[in-house]
Prior knowledge:
By secondary structure, the protein is mostly helical. It is built from 14 helices and 2 strands; from the N terminus they run ααααααααααααββαα. The protein has helices at residues 2-7, 11-18, 20-49, 69-110, 113-149, 152-167, 174-184, 188-191, 195-198, 201-213, 217-225, 231-264, 279-288, 292-324, and strands spanning 266-269, 272-275. A hairpin with a 2-residue loop joins β1 and β2 (272-275). α5 (113-149) runs parallel beside α10 (201-213). The protein is globular and about 65 Å long.
Amino acid sequence: xxxxxxxxxxxxxxxxxxxxxxxxxxxxxxxxKEWAINQPSVYxxxxxxxxxxxxxxxxxxxxxxxxxxxxxxxxFKPVLSQVCVWMWNIALIIGIVSALYALxxxxxxxxxxxxxxxxxxxxxxxxxxxxxxIVLTSLLWIPIGVWIGLNPRLRSIFQPLVQFLAAFxxxxxxxxxxxxxxxxxxxxxxxxxxxxxxxxxxYLVFNIIAGAAAIPPETLLAAKNFGVKGFLWWRRLVLPAIxxxxxxxxxxxxxxxxxASIVADVLKWxxxxxxxxxxxxxxxxxxxxxxxxxxxLGLSVMCVYVLxxxxxxxxxxxxxxASRFSME
Length: 328
């Protein structure tokens, strides 16, 4: 219980609560929220009260339209909204198809089909690197993140540190990596790969720690009383509990790796340039040379990979997390 009380304290949060400017802003926001909530209800109440008395019914044509305006608009609003939705969807589909057609035609004028296949191959290499990095990072951080998440004292120490590392510009260590690769004659395709995840792995760490911290203490005590430990403790208790959090962190990390590959695949320091094989190096090289068709091709292929992976992999894992999230 003492650990739980300590968990909910934060010196920075306490300073914010005691700040006079924040108190003034909070009072202003609460007053505005109260006005925003109450004002529409008052308006609707007055609108409902607006009606012509029955004994003063007019004999003019269409006079009934003005007698109960609220009921009139509630009858036609679903129809109008449905028409607007259909018009928006049709316009959106036409716009997307037209943009894709123009982009494909523009790229095809300057790039051959053989090069397009090669770019998709480079995208497959980058996707394989990211998948391998996610697996290796998960094997490292799941035990550590669970250990930190289940210990409130460790959370109070390591969470600020992880937040600092997440904000740290990882490209500052690129010169050291380039120097090490050149000095030891290392393979740039292998040793530049970890750079893609150094700055994005912290999203995974955040979510693993949060998932472990969200496990009810009663469940942990029950598992301890029943002697559940070892591999059974991980398989039946911890892994199902942190699985939804893990999927969120892994998906965010993977998305960050795709962006980081554009920088990590081409390392420059002085007059030295190291180029790794992958989609990121393709985009970087042609962006610097001003070749817009090939830059557009590389970015389009990256978007296709991200969309397909999100739909076929992450979406299915989210559905699994939603349907099987129970500590059986």
